[in-house]
Amino acid sequence: MSKIDLRGKTVLITGAAMGMGRLYADLAAQDGAAHVVLWDINEDLLAKADAELPDCDVHCYTVDVSSLEAIRDAAGKVLADVGVPDVLINNAGIVRGKYFWEHDHEVDIELVMRINALAPMHITRAFLPAMMEGGTERRIVNIASAGGLVSNPKMSVYSASKWAAVGWSDSLRLELLKTGHGNIKVTTVCPTYIATGMFEGVKTILMTPILTPEAVVTKVWRYMKPGKPFVIMPWTTQLGKILKGTLPTRAWDLMADRVFGIYGTMDSFVGREGRQQPTTGKR
């Protein structure tokens, strides 16, 4: 499996002004990317990242990825000003942690689905035709979640958005292979809770520590280069996926709730206050 060499390449990251998005930007710069394109809704933090990223040409775009119009406009500017991304990392996301009937139609259901599920599709669709030209080795990374593999109370809308992301992302991988565009490899990322502040207050799962942003970003970066299809971490996430698919539903529910403690992890959820933020917690 061939690895992509990032020297001289263009890397685009959404939700890039802080947190894990910023860590991806740092790695791109360290690996010799010529252009690092940062999308985020927070203009001030974008300016800070621009000033601090070393040894590369940084291009900052203030983009609300919940808006298709904003995505189309920003993508057109990137293609005209910078060129075709060689690596696209769909990292931006938000979370709502409450029972389904407590969700507001607009600020919860609509917004979560637009940012977590639709935005990666629209962003990728805006760049993919250009990325498919020329047979160049390219990568797409879609940050999903363990919540897109295993259901959980008080995560119904969030999990729905991430199940959609997982299904779309891996189907895209197969479509590219099937149609002779295997040079563009898609990696779908499914971590459990990460210590970014996004899932402040969650309880831990049996044998599953809260992941550090650095550990997740490092592994994603390592898997992205050869284009491995999935990053599922930690190992207990893969175990949960297997058990859910093999055990009878009632048996799995009992194990998930009373043995692993998955179904109670959101009971004390607090989250992070503020507007749309880049995030890769249990996504």
From TrEMBL:
Annotated Gene3D superfamilies: NAD(P)-binding Rossmann-like Domain (3.40.50.720)
Top-rank taxon: Bacteria
Keywords for this protein: Oxidoreductase
InterPro entries: NAD(P)-bd_dom_sf, Sc_DH/Rdtase_CS, SDR_fam
Coiled-coil features, chain-numbered ranges: none
Keyword Oxidoreductase attributed: yes
PANTHER family: PKSB, RETINOL DEHYDROGENASE 10
Family, similarity comment: Belongs to the short-chain dehydrogenases/reductases (SDR) family.
Protein's name in the database: Short-subunit dehydrogenase
Organism ancestry: Bacteria, Bacillati, Actinomycetota, Actinomycetes, Micrococcales
